[in-house]
Amino acid sequence: MMEYTSLPINTQTGVLPRTGFLEIENLVKSYPTPDKDNFVVLDGVNLTIGEDEYISVIGHSGCGKSTLLKIVAGLEKATSGSVRLDGKEIRQPGAERMMVFQNYSLLPWLTVRENIRLAVDEVLKNANRAEKISIVNQHLAMVNLTAAADKYPDEISGGMKQRVGIARALAIRPKMLLMDEPFGALDALTRGKLQRQVLDIWENNRQAVMMITHDVDEAIYMSDRIVLMTNGPAASIGEILEVPFEHPRDRAAMRNSKEYFELRNHALNFLDRYFAQDE
Ligand SMILES: Nc1ncnc2c1ncn2[C@@H]1O[C@H](COP(=O)(O)OP(=O)(O)OP(=O)(O)O)[C@@H](O)[C@H]1O
C-alpha cells in the first residue's frame, strides 16, 4: 500500500505566483435589489489556476460558489474585475470551457449517444462523420456507457446520467472543465466510483478543472488545491489549501496518513468558524 508522509499544511490566499491559465482578478459580483442597494455576492475574489490543475471550491450554502463558476463559464457577467482564460477576457460561454451540472441537464428525447453527439456536432464542426462517431464511441467507453448508448435518460440511473454529462463535456475537448457539485446527487458508492473514474480520465488527459463541492473528503481526494470561501454576502477567498499528495492517489492510504487528517481538520475548522459567525 502507498504511504503518505506528514508535511506542514500550506495555506495561501490571493493571486498565486504560478503560471496563470485562468486568472480571476478583483472580481466583484452584485445584483440590484428593489430598494436600490446592491446585494454584493462576491467581493474581491483573486485566484489563478494552472492549465492542468484540479481546483475545488468549498464554502457555506449561498456564499456565491455557483455564481463564481457561472462567471467563469460566461453565463453571468462580473460587476467589476476581470476573468481571463489563456490571456483572453471571458465575456460569454465558449466551447473551451464546459460545464457539468449537478442535475445532469440531458435532453430527454435524445439517447445517451445522441446527447453526446449533439455537443460534438455543435462544437467540432470541422470533424468528418467518421471522426465524430469515433469521438462519441471513445467517450462512451471512457465512462463505461457503451452498453447503454441507445437508452434514453429516463431509462438510466442518476450515476449513469452524470456520466453522460461528463462524457458530453469531455467529448468536445475543452481546455477547462467546470463542475457544480457533480457528485452531489449520487449515493456514496456511486459517488466514490465516479470520483475515481473522473480522476482516471483527468490523470490521462490533464486539463484545468474547477469543481464546487460541499464534501471536504472529496476535495482532498480529487484536487491539487482547495479554495475555501468566506460566508456571504460579500464573500471572498478565505484560504487556499495545497493538497500535498501525488496523483494517482490511493484513497485508503491517504486517509490513514497524518497529513490527510490535519488537512481535513483544518478545512472543517475553517468552515465551522464561518458557520459559527452566522449563528
Ligand atoms: N440572479 C440572481 N439575482 C439575485 N441574487 C442572486 C441571483 N443569483 C444568485 N443570487 C444570490 O447570490 C448568492 C449566492 O448564490 P450562489 O448560488 O452562487 O451560492 P452557492 O454558494 O453556490 O450556494 P449553494 O451551495 O447553496 O449552491 C445567494 O444569496 C443568492 O440568493
TrEMBL record:
It comes from the Bacteria. Keywords: ATP-binding, Cell membrane, Membrane, Nucleotide-binding, Translocase, Transport. Residues 22-256 form the ABC transporter domain. It is a peripheral membrane protein. SUPFAM superfamilies: P-loop containing nucleoside triphosphate hydrolases (SSF52540). One of its GO terms (molecular function) is ATP hydrolysis activity. Transmembrane segments: none annotated. InterPro entries: AAA+_ATPase, ABC_transporter-like_ATP-bd, ABC_transporter-like_CS, ABC_transporter_ATP-bind, NO3_transporter_ATP-bd-like, P-loop_NTPase. One of its GO terms (cellular component) is plasma membrane. Pfam families: ABC_tran. It is found in: Cell inner membrane. The keyword Cell membrane applies. PANTHER family: NITRATE ABC TRANSPORTER ATP-BINDING PROTEIN, TAURINE IMPORT ATP-BINDING PROTEIN-RELATED. This is NrtC, nitrate/nitrite transport system ATP-binding protein.
